[in-house]
Amino acid sequence: MDKICISADSTFDMTPEMAERYEIKVIPSYVRMDETDYFDYPDIKQEALFEYYSQTKKLPQTAAANPMEYEKFFIECLAGHDSVVHIAKSAWMSCCYENAMIAAQKLKNVYVVDSTTISGGSALLALETVKQKEFLDAIDLQEHLFDFREKISGSFIVETVEYLHEGGRCSTLTYFGASAMQIKPSLIIRDGRLSVGKKYMGSYRRCLRDYIESTLLPLEENERDILVVAHAIQDEALLNFAIGQIEGKHYFKEICKMKIGAAVACHGGPNVFGVFLIKK
């Protein structure tokens, strides 16, 4: 059986400790604040992004690694391995996948998988890759992941549309309307793209409660393996409230909590909260 190296774009939002535990190699993207570029992983914390925006009213800019950087990264991954299976951020959301493919075509035995998702969804795909790599060679593993990614469901709820507005993802009219009416929209990941889902009204605590209830309502009451929560909740009490609501359902053997990285934080803003799971 091939000795496979699993790698991923940093936008899968696993902590460095988790990535090390599962032996996943991570390639960072970039965050630009003023004229300085930083690695988004593991250098920049979400709090620094929010503080920058609060002080300057300018969104940090994000950028993928370029093809040459991917090529160098894959060569390093191949050292001591027969092949590489790389989990990329959705091709509809970034050029990460495109740049990784350009690099992979110059090398042998590098297999890139468009996760068609981001954050906790990409993390679930990476975990499945780790689970199956002992039983499948790299080509079969890639094919398995093409099927498995269709089972991953993910969405977010945002407290404010201000960051979406500043990033050009919602109109000024929508921004003022949502702010005036206390509307908190959900963002659903479907076919690799983000689209607006159900809208909630009222305090964020109430909207968060209703979002969780609505998201988990279709699930059967039999226990599932894992749910990933990817978030930028700044208030620990609010996070505990949300996690407690999920735990109270007794649907999942494990609830994995991850702080979102720059790619989601720069658009979702403080207190964005996402839920990712594997559909039966």
TrEMBL record:
<dbReference type="InterPro" id="IPR003797">
    <property type="entry name" value="DegV"/>
</dbReference>
<dbReference type="InterPro" id="IPR050270">
    <property type="entry name" value="DegV_domain_contain"/>
</dbReference>
<dbReference type="Pfam" id="PF02645">
    <property type="entry name" value="DegV"/>
</dbReference>
<keyword id="KW-0446">Lipid-binding</keyword>
<dbReference type="GO" id="GO:0008289">
    <property type="term" value="F:lipid binding"/>
</dbReference>
<dbReference type="InterPro" id="IPR043168">
    <property type="entry name" value="DegV_C"/>
</dbReference>
<protein>
    <submittedName>
        <fullName>Fatty acid-binding protein</fullName>
    </submittedName>
</protein>
